[in-house]
Predict the structure.
Amino acid sequence: MVLVLNRDKQSEETQVALLDNGKLVEIYLGYEDKEETAGSIYVGRVEKIIPALDAAFVKIGSETNAFLRLKDVKKEYLEFFGVAKIYEGQKILVQVKKESVGNKGPQVTTNIALVGRYVIVLPLAKSVGVSRKLDEHERERLRTLAKVLREQFGTGVILRTAAVDVNDEVLFEEIKELQAKWQDIVSIFKRSRKPKLLLKEADSDEFLIREFLRREVTEVVTNVQEHRAIVRKFDKNIPVRVIEGNTFEEFSIEDKLLEVYKRRITLPSGGEIVVDRTEALTVIDVNSGKCVATNDHEQLSELINVEAAIEICRVLRLRNIGGIVLIDFIDMKDETTREKVIEVLRKEVSKDRNRVELYGFTKLGLFEMARKRTSKSLDEKLLVPCPVCGGTGKVKSPHAVIQRLLKDLENKPRNAKELILKVHPYLKSHLSKTELKEKLKVDVHVHYTHIDPGTYEITWKM
């Protein structure tokens, strides 16, 4: 796996991409993530408590108030700050749990978590945890170590995947650093009177390298010399290659990203997946397409569905699609084939930084899964609804446009001698200039220069 870092000369933003065997699997473009707030810690003010929702709206400085579930406010938080309960007008320390979606504000929590390279410290909790991506033997060993760390430091501890094979002293030092950061946050919070941001590191080079530098990374390529020192801080054994120019252009990153944004994505065998998104969920259809590798239906299903499972997990991860996902795989009669596809899905989602739950097949044969949503998807950051179709992805048919055009042409002025008509080029094979001339009894000039395929421009000359 290759980690590609690119410092854009114009914006001075650092962009990041992960390539697995030449395939793009994760990306951070920098400029579109300026407003990203997941993980940020704020001084907030409780604006309103809604008992029916068992929630509160919290002002954190943004235009839209944040949403706080009252069940997230644990007794440890109340005891630490010496309050009996949450009330309106109260100053409150919160961390963004989920980014805002559409018109909904971000979701916040009082369960603060400070993230390091190897350890996540939970200053207001006593729980311990270990990365779910490790095998059970390794998890049990680290769980025992996490309990020791909890007792020594008196704080909740979660050991990340990168903590494997790391010296205990390194873990101790990182916890001490995170605890010192916590003390600074609490100190500033107690002195603050108005809602404001206390901690955001999501766009710093050190944060980006820390989060993207996985155990599987075998090489780092960058166009900034300073990145070498940051990489060595986390792992001295990974080679760093510094080149001149734009590393994203060197690895054709943007071209690889455009391929994944297609609605129809072709699989190696000739099959395809079709990705459609709604506000509530993502629906993915798997088709055999041009695949003719075998005449055996079950073998064909297995081949295409396995390829689709791998590609779907890559698309979800790369486009950062969260929420409910429904997959319509090609029908599989054999239970063994189904289990093989599910096993491939398990293997692929284990590579994802976000938590992914696999629920299995429904009675209708659709596969259900859910990917934890913490920040906006790339679709929400980079794409906007089409101004022509209004986001439906469809425009009026040529027949419908022509019928309306003919009706509008019936309102021809009595003394009109010439018609100048501007239409979209896709109407060229559906519109007859000769027929219009005979019907209207005027000179007709048609220009195929109109931008909107659903409308047209009519100009009469006397």
In short: The mean pLDDT is 86. Residues 398-461 form one domain.
